Amino acid sequence: MKPAEEESNLRYRALFECAQDGIFLFDADAGKFVEVNGAFLRMFGYSPEQITQMTIFDLPRDTEENIRKNIQRVLQHGYWQLGERTYRRADGSLIEVEVYAALLNLSDRRYIMAVARDITERKRNEQERQRMQEQLEQARKMETIGTLAAGVAHDFNNVLSVIMGNAELLLVTHASDRRVTEHVRQILQACERGKKVVDALLTLGRRSVSEMRFHNLNSLISASQQILSHILPATIRLEIHLQPNLPAVKMDVTQIEQMIMNLCSNARDAMPSGGSIILRTCSLMLRTPRVMSGIHLPAGEYVCLEVEDTGAGIPPEHLPRIFEPFFTTKPVGMGTGLGLATVYGIVQAHGGGIEVQSTPGKGTCFRILLPAARGEEPASTEIEQPQGIPHASSRRILFVDDEQNIRETVAQMLRLQGYEVDVAANGEEALQILRERREHYHLLITDLTMPEMDGIRLAQQVHALNPDLPVVLCSGYGAEVIEQASGLPNLAGHVQKPYRRQQLFAVIEQALNR
Predict the structure, then answer these.
(1) What would the pLDDT profile of 241-276 be if each residue is shown by its tens digit?
(2) CB of 376 within 8 A of CB of 302?
(3) What share of the chain is helix, strand, coil (3-state, %, to 5)?
(4) Strands 300-309 and 275-286
(5) What was the pLDDT predicted at 332?
């Protein structure tokens, strides 16, 4: 061999062995490996002895027919970029590679030299970025829809407040007319159903007012068992498996009950011919942070609730959308598409996470994690009995609301009960009235959400004018705002729109007798 040829050969060998990418040469007709570099051996985990006994058909996770088609492309064009391919390593694991191949004609034989670049980590990072991007988009979409839903709920609450208030006025003024009272009761029942839709929208938008207390999930499920038996037909068997000594959870009992009812109702609808619903509880520890349906959960102890059914299951193409508001696969008139969206909102509001596993024809399992509260004493789950309507004693009330229909309706309701009432359309008007008659009023009732001056700001201004005048806030939503308002020294109560007159009168009496 001439010195120049020897130097060229040494240069080639150095480049071949020092390359970071795997390089391999194989017979284009037989597929047998002729030569590979060290990077190839490390990448695929084979020894030089093993690789000489193998062919190109032993490596890719592909059919021999497809591999031969790619070889023919290289033979036809002289060069071919195979792109991303999945190969199998010696230990059975899979590796993602980019492959480039070129034709070599040596000693009247055809060979193919290929370069394989390991892109496994890059692909994993890309998939993780894509997953995080999808979660971010989902979170943004849910936030946007939630904001819209809360705005719709606020306006709808005002409409319901007027309808319910006037209906109750009819009950008072036409109590002796049975036909009128029957029609009015049907109106009020329809309003109550509308109120549940509003509550679902508020929960979705995380604007609902919640009473968070420490409770035991096992006790809540046991207390709900009788109600569940009423909504489930005899063809569906309810199984309950509760882990003893479950930690307490800081929860809104009403919302968690609603969550369980929604999940069980969905399970019932998925089993028209009958089946089983299984409720399970347990405690578990997350050693590392976790993401469940776009909700980030920190490491820590959680209480787990599983609601499993043996129903029809959820098609895979529907799973990414099941928590979206108004998405439903039920026939028109059979569902609003708010059930699972409400469940998602409740879980998120409680700092928990939710995931679903479903196989068509084999059933569905919803898994919910709620933060545990070790060492906290669960509160009683006894339901308070409604109180009767108190009687007014000529107390003077200033009622503030920017909706004229609400002002007129509530003012008439209060006057029929014996209160003296003045009204104001906004905060500035209310303050002007109070400046003129500072010692005249016993109570101020104001809407929370008003243009220019909201109820909290008005309450602060009122306290500066008359520190002894108690204030009651009315709101269609605003759990976070109500929490902020809890520090107001003159705050004497809060009533949630739309309210029944019994509720309003009870809050008024409590404020006046404070």
Answers:
(1) 999 999 999 998 878 988 998 899 889 989 999 999
(2) no
(3) 45, 25, 30
(4) antiparallel
(5) 46
Look at domain 3-118 and name its CATH class: alpha beta
**What is the distance between the alpha carbons of residues 339 and 259, in angstroms, rounded to a whole number?**
8
Answer for the pair 478, 365: CB distance below 8 angstroms, yes or no. Answer: no
Determine the 3-state secondary structure of 240 from DSSP.
strand
DSSP state of 500: -
Domain ranges of the chain: 3-118, 131-204, 213-373, 396-512
Q: What is the bridge-based pairing of β-strands 396-400 and 420-424?
A: parallel
CATH no. of 396-512: 3.40.50.2300
- Separation CA 349–CA 207 (nearest Å): 9
The C-alpha atoms of residue 124 and residue 134 are separated, in whole angstroms, by: 15
CA distances from 327 to 145, 208, 364 (A): 12, 21, 17
- Asked whether 439 and 414 are in contact (CB, 8 A), the reply is no
Cβ count within 10 A of residue 407: 18
Instruction: Give every residue of the chain whose pLDDT is below 50, as ranges.
Output: 209, 332-333, 380-390
pLDDT digits (tens, 9 = 90+) for 285-332: 999 998 888 788 999 999 999 999 999 899 988 888 888 776 676 654
Token pair in block for residue 256 = 């968690």
End-to-end alpha carbon distance in the chain: 109
Q: Which residues pair with 115 in a beta bridge?
A: 23, 100
